[in-house]
Amino acid sequence: MSVILVTGGAGYIGSHTCLALLRGGHEVVVVDDYSNASPLALTRVEALAGRRFRAVIEADVRNRDALRKVFSEYAVTAVIHFAAKKAVGESVRMPLAYYDNNLGGLFSLLEVMGEFGVKRIVFSSSATVYGDPVTVPITESFPTQATNPYGRTKLMSEEILTDLAAADPGWKVVLLRYFNPVGADESGQIGEDPSGIPNNLMPYVSQVAVGKLGELQVFGNDYPTRDGTGVRDYIHVVDLARGHVSAVERFDSLPSLSAINLGTGRGYSVLEVVLAFEKASGCPVPFRIVPRRDGDVAECWADPALAEQVLGWRAERGLDTMCEDAWRWQQGNPDGYRQA
Ligand code: NAD
Ligand code: WQD
């Protein structure tokens, strides 16, 4: 029986993907060091799926011996590699921690995969690799560029994986470039659980709506967009999770390297997100316009045609559902996984 190893499986996107994999009948082993997650997420995933993980191992992916133990004990056939640090601002302050964790983790994982002859990997990349796009929508052939250390770890990881696939076509590498993942499982049992004050828009808005934060700061209303605020391609995390299941189920038909956008193909402004969230929650989201945030781009949204063509995948959930599901999670878990 084939087994999928999910690194960072207790995290936000990882937990939703694990649920989709378990529901799809896959055997799943999780490795997570819980540096940015709670084991409770995995307990809840098992309860929602009505199935158990094959194994859940607390380990750092940079620990080669721990990985070797996993590959010797379980017949892993493919890996989905989520484990990474992801806060852009923190990466500017602590670049070495980001290079060490994100690149060191990838190296040790690829090395051990090679030792065990496991050559199928889905890698969590990001629309951040497009930097400031010359136009929108963004196709996979756009030039890549990084504007901060976090983005550089994603770009360098893509380059390392590209070199590996070129050197040995026995590898199957799928680079999934996520746009802006938001929302939560419709059960409200699992969701995004940022530590401290959220950096990203949707968790910030939902904490304003619930009354934990006073007001949203809107970073700039002088962009060349329809209302002057930044436009992004928000994608429901459950759709994103489905995209990973499609990728692992289609390895056989994929070339040795694919880079695929996972987005909806539709952009929403900050103010449109605020309005949609107010509608979904029935709560006001007070905001104030402040200067632009360094490094932000005006517009970033995907051309998702390739994902449909090669993965048979397209996003199904719209902004209202994203907000409703984020709100259900927020209301039921005002302190994330910490309260339980
Ligand atoms: P997350 O922080 O919720 O999940 C990452 C998980 O990896 C956490 O459970 C964390 O404990 C674990 N982890 C981190 N370093 C580890 C290590 N060295 N060893 C073992 N486990 C480790 O983040 P997420 O939002 O679920 O993101 C998952 C992946 O998707 C990341 O690679 C991220 O860079 C990428 N990504 C995220 C977004 C986003 O906006 N959320 C967008 C594009 C790409
Ligand atoms: C969205 C919009 C902000 C917060 C980041 C990473 C990217 C990827 C996804 C990992 C922008 C505005 C935000 C706030 C605001 N992550 N905003 N007030 O910056 O598009 O992408 O997450 O790979 O790499 O850079 O997402 O949610 O931070 O911002 O006005 O308090 O909301 O200016 O227009 P971003 P975001």
UniProtKB/TrEMBL annotation:
<comment type="similarity">
    <text>Belongs to the NAD(P)-dependent epimerase/dehydratase family.</text>
</comment>
<dbReference type="InterPro" id="IPR036291">
    <property type="entry name" value="NAD(P)-bd_dom_sf"/>
</dbReference>
<dbReference type="Pfam" id="PF16363">
    <property type="entry name" value="GDP_Man_Dehyd"/>
</dbReference>
<dbReference type="GO" id="GO:0003978">
    <property type="term" value="F:UDP-glucose 4-epimerase activity"/>
</dbReference>
<keyword id="KW-0413">Isomerase</keyword>
<comment type="pathway">
    <text>Carbohydrate metabolism; galactose metabolism.</text>
</comment>
<keyword id="KW-0119">Carbohydrate metabolism</keyword>
<dbReference type="InterPro" id="IPR016040">
    <property type="entry name" value="NAD(P)-bd_dom"/>
</dbReference>
<dbReference type="GO" id="GO:0006012">
    <property type="term" value="P:galactose metabolic process"/>
</dbReference>
<feature type="domain" description="NAD(P)-binding">
    <location>
        <begin position="5"/>
        <end position="325"/>
    </location>
</feature>
<comment type="subunit">
    <text>Homodimer.</text>
</comment>
<dbReference type="InterPro" id="IPR005886">
    <property type="entry name" value="UDP_G4E"/>
</dbReference>
<keyword id="KW-0520">NAD</keyword>
<protein>
    <recommendedName>
        <fullName>UDP-glucose 4-epimerase</fullName>
        <ecNumber>5.1.3.2</ecNumber>
    </recommendedName>
</protein>
<dbReference type="GO" id="GO:0005829">
    <property type="term" value="C:cytosol"/>
</dbReference>
